[in-house]
Amino acid sequence: MLTLRLYMLQRITAMLMAPLVVGHLAVMIYAIQGGLDAAEILGRTQGSIVWFLFYGTFVVAVAIHGAIGLRTIIHEWGGVRGAALEAVMWVTGAILLGLGARAVWSVTFAAGLGA
Fold first, then answer.
1. How many angstroms separate the CA atoms of 65 and 47, rounded?
2. 51-94 tens-digit pLDDT
3. Exposed/middle/buried for residue 45 (C-beta within 10 Å: 0-12, 13-18, 19+)
4. pTM attached to this predicted model
5. What pLDDT sits at residue 111?
6. Which residues contact 61 (CB under 8 A, 6 or more apart)?
7. Are 58 and 107 in contact (CB under 8 A)?
8. CA distance readout (Å), 26 to 4, 19, 59
9. Which among 5, 33, 63, 79 could bridge 97 via Cys, Cβ 3.0 to 4.6 Å?
10. Quick count: other Cβ atoms within 10 Å of Cβ 71?
């Protein structure tokens, strides 16, 4: 039953990530058309709850999706099972979530709060 739940969760996160990837690519293509540099882009994202929610949702979906995918690969290719397999999944998800959350915070709010 756990395998089915993880399978479904990974598919749901993939469906969530698809429009977020397209949106991210569209914004990046649009942003560089006018010759914007990183400082100008950060100037537009700082303090924006919309960009925080957009990229925060993206990070959560990627962390879940990536951790489940790595769990599957390790199980199929490495034969790892049980608690070790679950630990790899949870640690991977936590690392991805932590790094992604830090990046989202840095792009949207950190400089605005003097950090």
1. 28
2. 999 999 999 999 999 999 999 999 999 999 999 999 999 999 99
3. buried
4. 0.86
5. 62
6. 13, 16, 17, 20
7. no
8. 33, 10, 18
9. 63
10. 22
Residue type, 10: Q
- Contact between 107 and 59 under an 8 Å Cβ cutoff? The reply is no
Give me the residue spans of the domains in the chain.
Answer: 13-113
Residue type for position 97: L
Q: What is the rounded CA–CA span in Å between residue 27 and residue 54?
A: 12
Question: For the chain, where are the alpha helices, taking DSSP H only?
Answer: 2-33, 38-45, 49-78, 82-105
Average pLDDT score over residue span 5-12: 95
- Give me 67's structure tokens: 């951790």
Task: Look up residue 86 and give its two tokens.
Answer: 């679950």
Q: Are 89 and 67 in contact (CB under 8 A)?
A: yes
Q: Is 47:57 a contact under the CB 8 Å cutoff?
A: no
C-alpha 46/C-alpha 32 separation (Å) is 18
